[in-house]
Amino acid sequence: MSEMSKQIKQPAETFATEAEWLAARRNSIGGSDAATILEQNRFSSPLELYAEKLGLIEPSELGQPARWGKRLEPAIADGYTEETGRQLIDHGYHLFKSNEFPWAHATMDRQIIPIDGKRGSGVYEAKLTGYYKKSEIEADIPIVYQIQVQHNIAVAELEWGSVAILLNGRELLWADLERNDRFIKVLMEKEREFWDRVQTQQPPPP
User: Fold this and answer.
1) Is it the case that residue 66 has pLDDT exceeding 90?
2) Residue 9 confidence class, pLDDT cut points 50, 70, 90
3) 51: Cβ–Cβ under 8 A, 6 or more apart, which residues?
4) Contact, 203 vs 50, CB < 8 A?
5) φ/ψ of residue 72, rounded to 5
6) How far is CA 172 from CA 13, 15, 54, 178, in A?
7) Which of 69, 70, 173, 193 has the smallest C-beta neighbourhood within 10 Å, fewest atoms?
8) Residue 175 pairs with which residues in a beta bridge?
């Protein structure tokens, strides 16, 4: 095994189909759930997520922005590689797991392969948005994206991540995020409390 291969984290589970992957995601908390738990997701509430995890309701269907984001994900990844020189690996339908946080999983859009020998691999997330202004993104990466990256960093046991944002379908912005252990501690405690509610069937307040 090459030194480079040793630095690339491998998922705990991979799946042949999207349906299998989606079913497995119901059994733990993922990065896209984390913002909902912290009440930072304007499209979902903790109560709705609770009901989804118990199978009481079906997950909400993806809206047009999310569907187009999925379709354009490879193009955004190509643009990111072109602008940064960083290479990405696509693990397909996968879940990373953590012994420290057994209630959690992580799925990365891609994983950043170390290229300079100075830092290990990182989490890569691609976003498509027309909701935020360029000035807002340049001032600070939207909190909902930061939460997802920090969750995935914690579960995959990495030290940094990067977000690539295609703004209004015509401009690519990107920024790196370092691991924030103080935030991760708070986030994981909130996630553990939420998962305890799921396990004991004690719904969060509406």
Assistant:
1) no
2) confident
3) 57, 203
4) yes
5) -90, 0
6) 31, 30, 38, 20
7) 193
8) 163
* Residue among 190, 123, 195, 194 at smallest CA distance from 160: 123
Helix axes of 46-53 and 181-200: crossing angle, nearest 10 degrees = 60
Model confidence over 105-160: pLDDT tens digits?
A: 999 999 999 876 678 999 999 999 878 888 888 899 999 999 999 999 999 999 99
Which of 4, 5, 13, 7 shows the shortest CA–CA distance to 107? 13
Alpha carbons 179 and 56: distance in angstroms, whole number? 35
First and final C-alpha spacing in the chain: 51
In this prediction the pTM is 0.93
The rounded Cα 118 to chain-centroid distance in angstroms is 24
